[in-house]
Every structure is written in C-alpha cells, then in structure tokens.
Amino acid sequence: MWGFxxxxxxxxxxxxxxxxxxxxxxxxxxxxxxxxxxxxxxVAGAHTISRGYEAPSVFYGPGHRGIDLLADEGQEILAPxxxxxxxxxxxxxxxxxxxxxGVFLSTFEPVTSTLKEGQSxxxxxxxxxxxxxxxxxxxxxxxxQGKEYLSPLALLASIPAAVLLPWD
Length: 168
Prior knowledge:
- The chain has 2 domains: 2-33; 49-156, Glucose Permease (Domain IIA), CATH 2.70.70.
- It has helices spanning 2-27, 153-156, and strands at residues 49-51, 67-70, 76-78, 83-91, 94-100, 105-109, 111-112, 120-121, 126-130, 138-145, 148-150.
- The model is unreliable at 16-34 (pLDDT under 50).
- The chain has 2 helices and 11 strands; from the N terminus they run αβββββββββββα.
- The chain is α+β, with helices and mostly antiparallel strands.
C-alpha cells in the first residue's frame, strides 16, 4: 500500500514542480510573446545557418545578436512578415534594412534596398539584394522586441507544442 501512495505522491509532486517551473520561465522572459512560425524565411531555397544566435550576458556585452544564413551575393531578400520599412542605410561599413512588424523589428545585413522608410511591405515581398561583407558570405538576420534582441529562430521555426503524456 505504501509503495502505491509513495509513487502517486511522487508523480503529483513532480508534475506540480514542472508546472510551476513552466509558469515562472514564461513570465521571466519575453518568450511568451513570441509566435513560433509567424515569420517566413527571408531567403528562398535551403536554410543553412552558419552561425546561431548568442545572447549577450549584459546589454552591451559581446554576443551574436542574430543568425547568419548562407546566401549568395545578389540573392533576393524577402520580408518575413508584413510591416513598414523602419530604416534603410549604412551602419559602420554594411548596408542594412530594418522592418517594423508592430511588436517585432527585423534587421537584414548586408542588404542593398531601393525601399524608403515608411514604405509598407508584405510577407514574401523582395526588400533588397544581398551584397558583400567582411562579416561572412551570408545574410545576417536580427530580431528585436523593443530594445531586447531575440533569436530570429523563435519566430521562424515552427516548434510543435509539448504534450505531457500520462505517467502510466
């Protein structure tokens, strides 16, 4: 009898702790605001990531605030979602375009664009072409929510929801 009760209590305790951990982690970050799969990929064809997102430990600390997608010079870059062009220009030594999607801001570099700030774009619309960079032979895709940098994969990849299975 004690073995059955002990096993049931253990399962209840483990399930409760898991639930609390999930709630705390969702409230502790902006991850709950992300909608996985809400963005489409900004390059056609294969999606090879040459460098992933590396969050900085402090706001101005070192990190890699985006992902690098292998792409060819001259390749068309597509809007990942509907939005309004936020910025087009050169930052340091790279041409850049950013799009305001309401809650999120996407950035693309090095990309040459003829679009103008304030111009509306639709998901899948060509926003520019990839140019050369000393950074890599790739498209650097960044994402922000307010001033907080996020991994663009959270918006690009459609990750299925976790399903808790019965203990027995």
